[in-house]
Specification:
The chain has 10 helices and 10 strands. It has helices at residues 5-16, 22-38, 43-56, 61-75, 80-109, 121-130, 145-154, 165-169, 196-206, 271-277, and strands at 113-117, 134-138, 160-163, 177-180, 184-186, 189-193, 210-213, 251-254, 261-264, 267-269. It folds into 2 domains: 5-96, Four Helix Bundle (Hemerythrin (Met), subunit A); 97-277, Translation initiation factor eif-2b, domain 2 (Rossmann fold, 3-Layer(aba) Sandwich), CATH 3.40.50.10470. Strands 3-2-1-4-7-9-10 form a 7-stranded mixed β-sheet, sandwiched between helices. It has a 3-stranded antiparallel β-sheet with strand order 5-6-8, covered by helices on one side. By secondary structure, the chain is of the alpha/beta class.
Length: 278
């Protein structure tokens, strides 16, 4: 490995991070590539770092897409300044996505009772802009990111109810719509926090709209799906019971036909169209 030791450790820390969201991980990955380029690393080293980043968090589409975009550009012979600008542009677009998505989603949420789960920058921005009547939030085990969402919304004066995951799924009938973020959007479906799929099933049963909020950095074209996978996580985060196999996954896949629409920085699209609009 030709990577400087300090940057190698940064990538290892990204790989080990189970708390940060997709945007936070993307920023750190982009910083590694930018630092490499600013140090004058050759294109081969940049390609190597990009490839390692793609594998660091295989359930996080933005890292996969960043690594693929910059690695391919380096392979095609782009100069250092062009690679720097392409990396910065990718990051700028991802950082602006929550604001643009919030602007598009806010009218859907005004004076509505909304249900969500986990933690999504785009969802929080949209709920803050949309002035909902109330937000029901699932705690989102095993790491309980939904607690952070509830705290962020309550700090802005939004009425929030927080509950355990199984309870909140049964509350879908009480709300006007469900809105969630995404860690990846693929032709197979939307990858998001485990529990999203049963929420979508329940929303369909109860006749409630189910919206996904996602930027272009979350959309994986078919040629990148082979890099994506959902990994098992430490069983101790759930329980340790002698003689019992404990299954722990952070993500599930929600089929596109259960989704009303995907809200993007470019507007609101039917799920299949969003794959090609971004």
């Amino acid at each position: 490995m030709n990577l400087p030791e300090d940057l190698r450790r940064q990538i290892e820390a990204i790989a080990a991070d189970s708390r940060s969201g997709a945007l936070g991980l993307l920023k750190r990955g982009a910083e590694v590539l930018l630092e490499l380029l600013l140090r004058g690393a050759g294109r081969e080293t940049v390609q190597e770092a990009a490839h390692i980043l793609m594998a660091a968090q295989p359930s996080m589409a933005p890292l996969i897409k960043l690594g693929w975009t910059i690695g391919r550009a380096a392979e095609e012979g782009l100069e250092e300044e062009d690679l720097l600008e392409r990396t910065r542009q990718f990051l700028r677009e991802a950082e602006s996505a929550p604001r643009l998505i919030a602007e598009a989603a806010a009218p859907l949420l005004q004076q509505r009772r909304v249900l969500t789960l986990s933690f999504s920058s785009a969802v929080i921005e949209a709920l803050r802009a949309g002035t909902p009547l109330e937000v029901l939030c699932a705690e989102s085990r095993p790491l309980c990111e939904g607690v952070d969402t509830a705290r962020a919304l309550a700090s802005r004066g939004i009425k929030v109810r927080l509950g355990v995951d199984a309870l909140i799924i049964g509350r879908v009938k009480e709300v006007d719509l469900v809105v969630v973020g995404a860690d990846a959007v693929t032709v197979r479906g939307v990858v998001n926090k485990v529990g999203t799929y049963p929420l979508a099933v329940m929303a369909q049963r109860e006749g409630k709209p189910f919206y996904v909020l996602a930027g272009a950095e979350k959309v994986l074209p078919p040629e990148l799906e082979g890099f994506f996978r959902i990994e098992g996580k430490p069983s101790k985060e759930v329980a340790q019971v002698e003689g019992v196999e404990v299954e722990n996954l952070y993500f599930d896949v929600t089929p596109l036909d259960l989704i009303t629409a995907i809200v993007t920085p470019a507007g609101i699209f039917p799920p299949e169209e969003a794959l090609f609009a971004l």
